[in-house]
Specification:
It is built from 1 helix and 10 strands. The protein is mainly beta. Strand 3 and strand 4 form a beta hairpin. The protein starts with a helix and ends with a strand.
Length: 169
């Protein structure tokens, strides 16, 4: 009995050392799995604004890379200087089931807001538009319906946006 218990303890200790070994690789059955994700949407704007709702949006290019440039106007003739023209792009993206986690990543530069799923706002404020040095933004959430709404908006400012990716987690 004593021999059997000590042998079981040694096997348990050995198994623990193997599982915790820093030499366990990503492909090993002994390693901790990385959270898998599935890309359900990847927009680089190489096709322009096809499939998007938009106003005051145009395609820009920097270093051969296409992006969307949003610009808002200002109409002060009738409303005393109040911004009345807004630039926006909007698209509903399917591929994430209601109640499931998702991640949205995009690059942006300038001044504006990006709304994810009609309620979560990311404020972009990097100054002037410089897509060569655009900042990467990431948002993770839980889908409230079977469609993720992506909405970028500027009012009285300009903003560039590119590389919008949605992953189901």
């Amino acid at each position: 009995m004593k021999k059997k218990v000590s042998r079981s303890l040694m096997m348990g200790a050995l198994a623990t050392c193997v599982v915790l070994s820093p030499f366990a690789s990503q492909n090993s059955a002994l390693s901790t799995p990385v959270q898998a994700s599935t890309i359900v949407f990847n927009e680089t704007f190489d096709g322009g604004l096809t499939g998007w709702s938009y106003t005051l949006a145009s395609v820009g290019t920097v270093n051969g890379n296409r992006y969307i440039h949003l610009q808002a106007g200002q109409n002060g003739s009738t409303l005393g200087g109040i911004v009345t023209d807004v630039g926006f792009i909007e698209k509903n993206v399917s591929g994430v089931a209601s109640g499931k986690r998702y991640r949205v990543t995009f690059k942006a530069s300038g001044v504006g807001n990006v709304s994810i799923d009609s309620s979560n706002y990311i404020n972009v404020n990097t100054g002037s538009v410089n897509m060569a040095n655009a900042r990467t933004y990431t948002y993770e959430g839980v889908a409230s319906k079977n469609v993720i709404n992506v909405f970028a908006l500027v009012y009285g400012s300009t903003m560039g946006i590119d590389d919008i990716k949605i992953e189901a987690l």
